[in-house]
């Protein structure tokens, strides 16, 4: 009996060592996944006017129910001292807003977000930007049209289109000069957009439009910097056989 027990002990020890090794390996693999896929990510930054800006991040997706987490965004300008975001409210959830007193153009901002939990901290990759490169203006509004003179029904009608910028105060300091792009198409041709660009004024006249129904939209951007705005609300424009009697 003693002989049998002595023979079995090495097998039990070896099995225990194997189990311990597998558990350690599995734990290390999970740790690698956490480090790579489950940390905050700063996915978008936008300035509407070069005077302030906001950055948004994706939060952690690996929290257990009820687990508390706090997000802290820190940044530096031109490799200066590190500062913490002063406004986590204005831009909505998972955001940092930089008001005019914290916004300086033509300086490089580098930032990251740290998720602080009871278990550990998770820090995003660093994102660096110049405010001038993230300007995205508001979409134009009040897109309207007026039918003007006709060169005869065979030649089509002319339409004067105009629109406005929704936040004129963004333009008052001269940092931003807008340019516009207008697109229009026949309703029956959903992919055949015709383009008017660049437009320096918030108006354009379309000449010789054949009788039909058209979809029209317009967008804008800073002439020197940044991204196109979203498209305006689409406008349905109808070109009749004859102009209405005056």
TrEMBL record:
One of its GO terms (cellular component) is external side of plasma membrane. Keywords: Glycoprotein, Membrane, Receptor, Signal, Transmembrane, Transmembrane helix. The keyword Protease does not apply. It holds the Pfam family EpoR_lig-bind. Gene3D superfamilies: Immunoglobulins. It is found in: Membrane. The keyword Zinc does not apply. Residues 139-242 form the Fibronectin type-III domain. This is Fibronectin type-III domain-containing protein. It comes from Scophthalmus maximus (Turbot).
């Amino acid at each position: 009996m003693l002989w049998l027990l002595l023979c079995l002990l090495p097998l039990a020890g070896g099995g225990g060592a194997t189990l311990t090794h597998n558990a350690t390996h599995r734990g290390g693999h999970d740790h690698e996944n956490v480090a790579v896929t489950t940390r905050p990510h700063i996915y978008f930054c936008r300035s509407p006017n070069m005077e302030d800006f906001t950055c948004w991040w994706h939060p952690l997706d690996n929290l257990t129910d009820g687990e508390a987490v706090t997000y802290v965004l820190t940044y530096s300008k031109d490799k200066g001292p590190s500062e913490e975001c002063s406004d986590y409210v204005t831009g909505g959830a998972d955001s940092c807003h930089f008001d005019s007193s914290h916004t300086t153009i033509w300086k490089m901002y580098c930032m990251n977000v740290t998720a602080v939990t009871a278990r550990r901290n998770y820090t995003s990759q660093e994102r660096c930007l110049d405010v001038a490169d993230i300007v995205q203006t508001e979409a134009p509004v009040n897109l309207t049209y007026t039918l003007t003179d006709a060169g005869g029904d065979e030649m089509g009608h002319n339409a004067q289109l105009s629109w406005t910028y929704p936040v004129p105060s963004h333009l008052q300091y001269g940092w931003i000069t807008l340019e516009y792009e207008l697109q229009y198409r026949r309703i029956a041709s959903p992919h055949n957009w015709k383009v008017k660009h660049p437009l320096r004024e918030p108006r354009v006249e379309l000449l010789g439009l054949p009788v039909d129904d058209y979809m029209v939209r317009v967008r804008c951007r800073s002439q020197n910097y940044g991204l196109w705005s979203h498209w305006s609300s689409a406008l349905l424009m109808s070109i009749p056989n004859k102009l209405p009697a005056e």
